[in-house]
Design the sequence.
């Protein structure tokens, strides 16, 4: 088992390396650089800047220099904001995004799993219809529309909740709902279909044939089996929610990581793009890795080869 | 003596989007104390639906439309869910066809057997339960019971899993055991071992058994009496000797011809009856076997025959047994 996870870990590092390489190449192959902008910079200045940041060196040289620094934990200075490093951006932005994301995940799980269970148990009845209707809205309507509707209703009309900022606990409510809407709907549907499938399995019939109550059949035999697919998608979901959403952060004026990332792309801030991408990728792979471990704990059938 | 189980005119249907599937259309039989009753028939004859109707284990779409299932003085089609649960696993236990999928993959096998006992005997301590499970594992010849208790189903072969299922089914010494094709998914040598064990355990536990199979050869090894089902109806019912020596239904004749002989090659050992079973959304008005019957006449397709009693334990449903049936092309004709 240790060997299995060691192997998985090695593969994760290779994947990470490939991601860094590909991002690096693509980023540099797009025309334009960090110092080309509307405001005309004199040629001398641009040359000096390019020299300072070693942008004229061959690409492979730049790449290895970057990797070297990365291994030391240094993601370099921002090209756009003098005096700021990419490490600073992440250190400032990530905790904000992560806290919002963490709360969202807890909210999503607490709501989605019971919703899915209810819908499956009441298959075809009004409870199921209601859950499915809500879930369908959740996966089809984009988060910025949901956010706008929420702000209009709860801030402007009812004046219950603030429109922006995370200064009080009330500030979290709308961003959490808007951010988690999709995952909530997706997981509720997944939980429902997974439980429905499990309830039709032969071992559920065996459990009923023992004389167990329906409640015991569900709690002891069906739920654990039904949770397996849900756990599988949890890795990417958690990573996605915790690394921040540009749309939600922009709408609610949240100083998280998502806003930084999108700004850095439009400003060709090479080091920031690279840094945030590497950070995202690492985080995502780590989450998938952790979920894998969970998976092995819950399902004895996983073979370690 | 009172029969253990009496099924009277059982009719079970599935309400599907394509209409009503009349899976079982009026089945009556009895199971005597300590006997092994066989139910044979091709796939789709209604054997599983009949057996699962007894314990009310069918999907929500299924409905027992008519009939009675008398067990221990109660009609099981009418008892409360609570009463039904008290009977399941304690008084009537069941073994299913596919040992691969009948055990919960996430729970150790010993724990699954222990649960069967615990549901009905809450007073037992953990140690007493374990002791009982070890003993049961020993009886069904699972080697090293203590070690195997903690194994998961995927660590077992099909035969071993079916032994677990048998141990589970016998755990509470039920009055009736329903075994729905318990050996169909297993290879022949394992099948033989399991059948021998089942017979030995049946003697020891004095349990009555309904043994369902599509293989008359298996019935011959195990059962005293047999019911032949087709199209949701009982075609013929007789002692095992009568079925083999004096079969009185063309469908039974067909099944007898398709018994695999032990020494024959796998590829050509079966000569199945040509044709396929009827569509049960529109069950035939006449004899369901008529379209495939080599002896069928006009009346067979238009009207369902009554049962003819050949002796006290032998009945069959076929127009060839009618007093007015012609003599030519009639295998059952005798002066
Ligand atoms: N869940 C179900 N929904 C609809 N029809 C079913 C269902 N289960 C069984 N049937 C139908 O009932 C009939 C009898 O099935 P079954 O009792 O399983 O046959 P057997 O066990 O003899 O092979 C078949 O025609 C089958 O298609
Ligand atoms: Mg069957």
Sequence:
């Amino acid at each position: 088992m240790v060997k299995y996870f060691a192997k998985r870990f090695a593969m994760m590092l290779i994947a990470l390396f490939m991601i860094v390489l590909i991002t690096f190449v693509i980023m540099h192959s797009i025309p334009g650089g960090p110092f080309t902008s509307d405001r005309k910079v004199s040629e001398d200045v641009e040359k000096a800047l390019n020299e300072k940041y070693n942008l004229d060196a061959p690409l492979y040289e730049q790449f290895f220099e970057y990797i070297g620094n990365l291994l030391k934990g240094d993601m370099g200075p921002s090209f756009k904001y003098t005096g700021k490093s990419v490490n600073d951006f992440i250190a400032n932005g990530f905790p904000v995004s992560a806290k919002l994301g963490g709360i969202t995940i807890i909210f999503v799980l607490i709501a989605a799993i019971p919703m899915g269970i209810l819908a499956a148990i009441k298959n075809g009845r009004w409870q199921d219809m209601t859950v499915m209707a809500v879930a369908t809205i959740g996966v089809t309507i984009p988060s910025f529309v949901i956010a706008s509707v929420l702000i209009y209703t709860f801030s402007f009309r009812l004046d219950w909740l603030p429109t922006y900022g995370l200064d009080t606990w009330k500030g979290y409510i709308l961003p959490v709902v808007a951010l988690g809407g999709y995952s909530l709907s997706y997981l509720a549907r997944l939980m429902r279909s997974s439980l429905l499938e499990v309830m039709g399995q032969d071992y559920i019939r065996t459990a009923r044939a023992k004389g167990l109550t329906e409640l015991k059949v569900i709690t002891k035999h069906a739920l654990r089996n039904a949770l397996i697919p849900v756990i599988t998608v949890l890795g990417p979901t958690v990573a996605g929610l915790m690394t921040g959403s540009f749309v939600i952060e922009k709408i609610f004026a949240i100083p998280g990581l998502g806003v930084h990332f999108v700004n850095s792309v439009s400003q060709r801030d090479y080091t920031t793009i690279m840094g945030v991408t590497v950070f995202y990728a690492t985080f995502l792979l780590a989450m998938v890795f952790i979920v894998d471990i969970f998976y092995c704990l819950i399902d004895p059938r996983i073979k370690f080869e | 003596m009172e029969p253990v189980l009496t099924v009277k005119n059982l009719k079970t249907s599935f309400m599907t989007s394509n209409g009503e599937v009349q899976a079982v259309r009026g089945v009556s039989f009895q199971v005597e104390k300590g006997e092994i009753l066989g139910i044979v028939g091709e796939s789709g004859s209604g054997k599983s639906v009949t057996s699962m109707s007894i314990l009310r284990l069918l999907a929500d779409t299924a409905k027992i439309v008519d009939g009675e299932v008398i067990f221990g003085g109660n009609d099981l089609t009418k008892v409360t869910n609570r009463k039904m649960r008290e009977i399941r696993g304690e008084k009537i236990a069941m073994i299913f066809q596919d040992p691969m999928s009948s055990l919960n993959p996430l729970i150790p096998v010993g724990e699954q057997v222990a649960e069967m006992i615990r549901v009905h005997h809450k007073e037992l301590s953990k140690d007493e339960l374990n002791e009982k499970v070890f003993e049961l594992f020993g009886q069904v010849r699972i080697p090293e019971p203590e070690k195997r208790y903690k194994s998961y189903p995927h660590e077992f072969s099909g035969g071993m899993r079916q032994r677990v299922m048998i141990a589970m089914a016998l755990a509470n010494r039920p009055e009736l055991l329903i075994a729905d094709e318990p050996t169909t998914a297993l290879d022949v040598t394992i099948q033989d071992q399991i059948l021998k064990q089942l017979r030995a355990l049946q003697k020891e536990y004095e349990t009555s058994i309904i043994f369902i199979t599509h293989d008359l050869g298996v019935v011959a090894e195990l059962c005293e009496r047999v019911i032949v089902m087709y199209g949701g109806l009982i075609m013929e019912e007789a002692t095992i000797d009568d079925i083999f020596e004096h079969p009185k239904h063309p469908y039974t004749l067909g099944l007898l011809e398709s018994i695999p002989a032990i020494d024959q090659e796998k590829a050509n050992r079966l000569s199945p009856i040509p044709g396929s079973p009827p569509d049960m959304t529109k069950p035939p008005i006449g004899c369901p076997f008529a379209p495939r019957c080599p002896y069928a006449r006009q009346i067979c397709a238009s009207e369902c025959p009554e049962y003819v009693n050949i002796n006290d334990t032998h009945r069959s449903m076929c127009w060839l047994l009618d007093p007015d049936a012609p003599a030519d092309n009639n295998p059952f004709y005798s002066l």
Summary: Chain B touches chain A at residues 55, 57, 59, 85-90, 93-94, 96, 98, 101-107, 115-116, 119-120, 152, 154, 165, 168 (CB under 8 Å). The two ends of chain B are 36 Å apart (CA to CA).
